[in-house]
Design brief:
By secondary structure, this protein is an alpha+beta fold. It contains five helices and 20 strands. The protein has helices at residues 32-42, 80-92, 167-172, 177-180, 219-233; strands spanning 3-10, 19-26, 47-51, 58-59, 62-66, 68-70, 75-76, 102-106, 109-118, 121-129, 134-136, 153-156, 160-163, 188-193, 201-207, 212-215, 237-242, 248-255, 258-263, 265-273. Strands 4, 5, 8, 9, 10, 11, 12, 13, 14, 15, 16, 17, 18 and 19 form a 14-stranded mixed beta sheet that branches. Strands 7-6-3-2-1-20 form a six-stranded mixed beta sheet. The relative contact order is 0.20.
């Protein structure tokens, strides 16, 4: 039997929307270079890896699994949409009961996922760490790589967060990817407040340093966006629209030093990785 792999569109109920991720169910843990090669071959913003043997680790507290994420170029510390996709696969394809709590052991600590009722039908809730930002000086022209319009603020956390006055500016940006690749953070979030609609803010995310020129919908970026907009708008429950070509909505709540993200997912394809996979690591 080959290595089972699922393609899932996350943060969307429509397969052509949201952010596609691959979820690879390994029969044996592989060496890092083999995992990276699979992710590069998939050429999606992230491929998630779990181990089939750990699916038997069921306790009164739910299921505990190791989870790793790779872009086509690098392993990353945190990925929201591929975690959502993994939870979707576990609940809908691998027999995990709907009331189980999924506990993921990751480079960002323990993350949790649950299947729950949502505004538009069943959705998955993710318990992630909140990421705080610090305001940095705005030098004239420093962010010209994003476009000719000067931002109103710049904040630094895991990623740079560049704030504009209106959502139309965010949607119209056509950045210089080569220049963004030289920044000293994983990526750049661009965002603006929206008024009068379903969402509180709009965003986009660029991470060419890790092989993702523009990510369609980024759960980890919302770990930084939600605390920022929660303080700015004086509310703990928010909705954000990520205005990529595919687009997707992330709803969430700030609870202390955690953010509770929610979203839907839909399976696009199911298959196997059938080539020999060298570098199996000892269990």
């Amino acid at each position: 039997m080959g290595t089972q792999q699922f393609m899932v569109s996350a943060f969307s109920a429509e397969w052509r929307g949201g952010n596609p991720a691959a979820v690879c169910v390994l029969n044996d843990w592989l060496a890092d270079d083999a995992l990276q090669a699979i992710a590069a071959q998939n050429n999606l913003s992230e491929t998630a890896f779990i181990h089939r043997a750990e699916l038997d680790d069921v306790s009164n507290q739910g299921l505990t699994l190791s989870l790793r994420w790779f872009t086509p170029a690098a392993e990353v510390d945190l990925c929201g949409h591929a975690t959502l996709a993994t939870a979707h696969v576990l609940f809908h394809h691998l027999g995990v009961v709907g009331d189980a709590t999924l506990n993921f052991t990751t480079r960002s600590g323990r993350l949790q996922a649950r299947l729950q009722a949502g505004l538009d039908g069943p959705e998955i809730g993710l318990d992630f760490p909140a990421r705080e930002s610090t305001r940095v000086a705005l030098e004239p022209g420093a962010w010209s790589a994003l476009g000719p319009i000067e931002p109103s603020e710049v904040w630094a956390g895991d990623d740079y967060m560049v704030v504009y006055e209106n959502p139309e500016t965010v949607q119209a940006l056509s950045p210089d990817i080569d220049k963004l690749q030289r920044l000293d953070r994983r990526g750049v979030i661009v965002t603006a407040r929206t008024e009068g609609g379903e969402d509180d803010f709009v965003s986009r995310f660029f991470a060419p340093k890790v092989g993702v020129d523009e990510d369609p919908v980024t759960g980890s970026a919302h770990c930084q966006l939600l605390p920022f907009w929660s303080k700015r708008l004086g509310k703990t429950s928010l909705s954000g629209w990520q205005a990529s070509t595919r687009g997707g909505r992330v709803r969430g709540e700030v609870v202390g030093d955690r953010v509770m993200l929610t979203g839907q997912a839909v399976t696009f394809s199911v298959g196997e990785v059938v080539v020999p996979l060298p570098g199996a690591a000892p269990q």
